[in-house]
Amino acid sequence: MKHFTKLAAAAALGTVLGTAAVAQELYTPNLAYRTGPFAATGIPLMNGQADYMTLLNERDGGVGGIRINAEECETGYSTEKGVECYEKTKGKAIVTQPWSTGITLQVLPKTNVDEIPILAPGYGFSPMADGKVFQWAFNMPAGYWDAADMIVQFLEQEGSLEGKKIAFLHLDHPYGKEPLPLLEKLAADKGFELLPIPVGLKEMQNQSAQWLQIRRERPDNVVMWGWGAMNAGAITEAVKTKFPMENMIGVWWAGHDADLKLVGDEGKGYKSISWSFPNPDAPVMQQVKEMVFDKGLSQSNEEEMQGVFYGRGLVMSMILAEGIKNAQDNFGTTEIDATQLRWGLENINLTEERIAELGMEGMVPPFSTSCANHTGHAGGWMLEWDGAKFVKASDLLTPNVDSYADLIASASAEYATSNAPWAMNEECSATN
What we know:
Layout: H1 2-17, E1 25-27, H2 39-60, E2 67-69, H3 79-89, H4 101-114, E3 118-119, E4 137-138, H5 144-156, E5 165-171, H6 174-177, H7 180-190, E6 193-199, H8 208-217, E7 221-225, H9 229-240, E8 248-250, H10 257-261, E9 271-274, H11 283-293, H12 308-331, H13 338-345, E10 349-350, H14 352-357, E11 367-368, E12 381-385, E13 390-392, H15 405-418
Parallel strand pairs: 1-2, 3-4, 5-6, 5-7, 7-8, 8-9
Antiparallel strand pairs: 9-12, 10-11, 12-13
């Protein structure tokens, strides 16, 4: 009642002044890529993100009664186009969602001046975990260094890695190179040989040279940091060269159902670490079907909606909506700005109970953020392809963040020095 009274008063004031005094929406643009070489993996993610915001608009009138405008600006995964989209949308945006580590790195210094939060769930620059230094950047619920650590943890469950060889098959792009500092540290600490094997953007669909090297080197495991067409190319080459699929593990962006369906049963055993899981029985899935899909408001299809990436898209928009709700509740207004949203994103508290309230049981691990911790370090499950779908192959793994906290601190400090003058959140300490 209080909310509606405030809106009525604002509307009356608008009538008196002859202007619209009430905001009609919150603008949360998404720098999407439904075209280009990464479209096959981008589309289900964008569809999941869009459908969750549509659900909130249809079911609840948005968040806090104000509608969400999640307009997409197409980048084709091009860094240049991504920066153009950022500049085009930043004027009225309360958040930017770059959707590429390359784009993230380019807009990161801009957002620190423009004071707009970056929301990059599970991607971007790993040191963004340091909220004091990167006060406008968030990569919750888990970052790339978390992923690398959890993959190595999982491999250690089968015994010591001392003397083993691990090939790191990765996109030759800022995204693919992102986990290298931690993987090199882990290799030195645990005594395994790390063999980086880059895949150029023009080689994604023809990786014969890379897989010839893998056959020659005979690594114990292949860790894949792939995306888009690279994933399908790597998986089909692995099957063709008869590499044991149970010895191949991808990051969460290399765990796309459609890529594994290309090889079906021959892909059995392939694994991917993941901070999300598709739960078709979760209440939110039924709500999306009834209020979005069945009404013709979705670009998705029933098969895609069962997959890992579509479900992850739902979770991503849920995290943003939680940040919006937090800010609205704290500041007592539905019409929050970018600075208030930053506070909301710094105070995420997704407990098991809250996840259940949102109808997302089993779809994302619990996590929380703070002004010092912009990643949350939620952990993840190892998923395994059973020939038809991904299933959970582990209990929840959690990253050993303390073991690389110094790496986060040194990398963030180096970034701030290299980009001086760099504004920090001086009110934030390591404990809050």
